[in-house]
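Continuing the batch. This is chain 6 of the set; chains 1 through 5 are on the previous pages. Same settings as before, nothing changed between runs. Recording input and output for traceability.
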Amino acid sequence: MSKRSHEIRSMFGRIAHRYDLLNRLLSLGQDIRWRRLVEQRIAALGPNRVLDMCTGTGDLALSYAGSTEVYGSDFCLPMLALAARKPGGRADTNAWFAADALRLPIAGGSMDAVTVAFGIRNFEDLDAGLKELARVTRSGGRLLVLEFSRPRGVVAPLLRWWVRNVPPMVGRVVSGDPEAYSYLTASVESFPDGETLCGMMRSAGMAEVEALQLTGGVATLYDGVVG
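Output for chain 6:
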């Protein structure tokens, strides 16, 4: 749980070959629906230039590619290599580039929208990361963050049992890496979700911040306008 960048990068590199499969298995396919909600919001904005940060194997970035200038970035090269080989992917450096989310090689205010799906929880410094994402987004642009959260409501006990027990077990069998999916469970438990994250987004320079709980709060979509 130290969240040192080189350790997180190494861990995701080890599981890259099973990342998409495990996303589908562990969410029972809900991750597709969650990403589609982000895609729909981006489509409604009609931005000219979008950055998908912590793009992983590129699922979200590729869903934007039909109508906008899209950039997908991650600090894990094995993930980016898989993204570039997917149908519709591009291997040129204008589309995919490696970078640390805390130190982006991008001019301030150059993006109309920035998205992050299941990556912000791994930032070594969450406050600094949010400020950096706000820096590269133009005034009036949008930051959309899709992230795991702690379930709430009537079915919360069942959902929490699933999150705590199933990912480590299934991840160990399918990926062969017991550490990665134990980390997933622990990091969700310690992540400042809900109104706490909304407050951090406001402190980083965003307004009109809202949080939409998905699937009983297993995931949450955060949406803010950069000032």
